[in-house]
Amino acid sequence: MTALEFTYNIGKVSKSLKPFAIKLTRDVEDANDLLQDTLMKAFTNREKYTEGTNLKAWLYTIMKNTFITNYQRMVRKNTFIDTSDNLHYINSLDSCTENQALISFTLRDIDTAVAQLDEAYRTPFLMHFRGFKYHEISEKLSIPIGTVKNRIHIARKELKDKLYMYAYSN
User: Which residue among 14, 38, 78, 165 sits deepest, i.e. has the most Cβ atoms within 10 Å of its Cβ?
Assistant: First the structure.
């Protein structure tokens, strides 16, 4: 495979890597950096790729390993070792607490948006969210399965519109 063909194939697959990068880093800017590092490593090591194998899986593996390496490097850099007799880790993650305010605001917004849904959409959506299958919802609410699917679809669409501020930018 030529470098041009390899680059073209990576370009087709790279869009599916961004959600994985966001999931790993939980930050859009860090995800962009991780994606760039991954693509750079893939291109510089293209001779290690075996043609005919799953390119997407190969790139996912590179991304995961790059993330782990960067994370370990960051942890080592941010850990100070006390050389006294007690030998405590000063910046140990055991003593950290996470600020839950953002999560609290997000959950409140989601609950509000769900509560604002019309009852006809909210009930099937919440049942599906709680794990009920389409046919179970259909039986319990005595409505056709197609109606169940349609109402859940509409509920998701309305929630997406109401909660647009939490969407990741592509």
Answer: 38
